[in-house]
Amino acid sequence: MLEIGGVRVDTLAQTYKTPLFVYDEDQLRSRLQEYATFFQSDTMETGVLYASKAFSCKAMLRLVKEYGLSLDVVSGGELYTAKAVDFDMSKVYFHGNNKSKEELEMAINYGVGTIIVDNLMEAQMLHEMSQSIDHTIHVLLRVNPGIDAHTHKYIVTGHVDSKFGISLLQEKELVDVIRTFDQDEHLSFDGLHAHIGSQIFDKNAFIAEIEKMFGFIKHLEDTYDIHLNTLDLGGGFAATYTSEDHPIPLQEVCSTIVSHCEKQNQELGLSIQKILIEPGRSVVAEAGSTIYTVGFMKQTPNKKYVFVDGGMADNIRPALYQAKYNADIANKMDAPKDTVYTVAGKACESGDILIEGIALPKCEPGDLLVTYTTGAYGYAMASHYNKNPLPGVVFCRQGKAREVIRRESYEHLIDLETDE
């Protein structure tokens, strides 16, 4: 029987029901510690921001807090969760391309340390709002470096027509935004933020981003006498989903980024004091798995289907990104994988396919199918489609399980409905 964090999968299924998200807590802790250890420089301050959009709950943020990392939030809800665990707000960075006025007010009232401004309209709104505050807010400006990191078109964020940030080609608008900040005594403009995509397997993509950004910072200094002290290089660090994936080893990618930033800073005669990165997927993805119970099977003229009690409502990525996953039958780990199945969910959608064409042991109703590397953007993107309750989430460590998010009940599904 397969175990996760020393706990048997059948025990987890019986105790917490399925579908169920399960995290190996020691694996989470190890990855947080690795980032804290490896992303260090002798000449610049460094910061690791956990991108909480990958997976956010109070238990996860408490781990981030324990290991001394900063936090990247992208909504009022993520910000509220950080506040609920008493996260140090000076270490919270608030992202987003369309923050509402209410969310910005929330960030100001909470004392968020840094707001990453996405566009000119947001800069103007923040400038107006800052006139009524009595403290200083640090600001970064998100720019679009025009670098394609060769990932799926929906998760590439650095090309010139991306919805995120201001393109480096729109130089006048960039300078106007920076001047707006410089004239505001309550806003401290620190520098720039860029992000070039997700699931980046080639470290040369990061090198290209660094060279592009340092070159532009040098241009701002020489042409406009604008001096920056911080550069946030975003995330994009990959995880292993199947044998086709070969992420850059974490120590290597951290060392590459740090050393190249140090080199650019020195060669261009710049005074960048702080560099930041924003890992999310690479922290939580591989630590998480999803347990399903097998229901019916079906043979069509060309396929053998095995149906599970979840699907696109708890993992939208295969339908959205054509993402690939690996899986096992937890109660048949030693059985030969001699049957090729298409693993399908229970949603009323033809596209509700979790895995297309995977070799598994002969499946039977009641078997426990476990998909791996679902720790990022699984629960975070889950929905109530077909009026299904959200799964629970469990952390396992050293043979013990603890429930960190309760499984929803049917009562939860209608609790906010008002028609009596």
Domain module count = 2
The stretches of 5 or more residues where confidence is low (pLDDT under 50) are none
CATH class designation of the largest domain: Alpha Beta
> How much is the average pLDDT?
94
Function: Specifically catalyzes the decarboxylation of meso-diaminopimelate (meso-DAP) to L-lysine.
Protein name: Diaminopimelate decarboxylase
Binding site for pyridoxal 5'-phosphate: 236, 278-281, 377
InterPro entries: Ala_racemase/Decarboxylase_C, DAP_deCOOHase_LysA, De-COase2_C, De-COase2_N, De-COase2_pyr-phos_BS, Orn/DAP/Arg_de-COase, PLP-binding_barrel
What this model shows, in words?
The structure is a single chain. 30% of the residues lie in helices and 24% in strands. It has 2 domains: 3-8 and 287-414, Lyase, Ornithine Decarboxylase, Chain A, domain 1 (Beta Barrel), CATH 2.40.37.10; 39-281, TIM Barrel, CATH 3.20.20.10. By secondary structure, it is α/β, with parallel strands linked by helices. The chain has helices at 9-16, 25-38, 58-66, 76-84, 101-110, 120-130, 171-182, 203-224, 250-267, 281-284, 317-321, 410-414; strands at residues 3-4, 7-8, 20-24, 45-51, 70-73, 92-94, 114-117, 137-144, 166-167, 187-193, 230-232, 274-277, 288-299, 304-308, 327-329, 339-344, 353-360, 368-372, 392-397, 400-405. The strands form 3 sheets. Strands 3, 13, 14, 15, 16, 17, 18, 19 and 20 form a 9-stranded mixed β-sheet that branches. The mean pLDDT is 94. Belongs to the Orn/Lys/Arg decarboxylase class-II family. LysA subfamily.
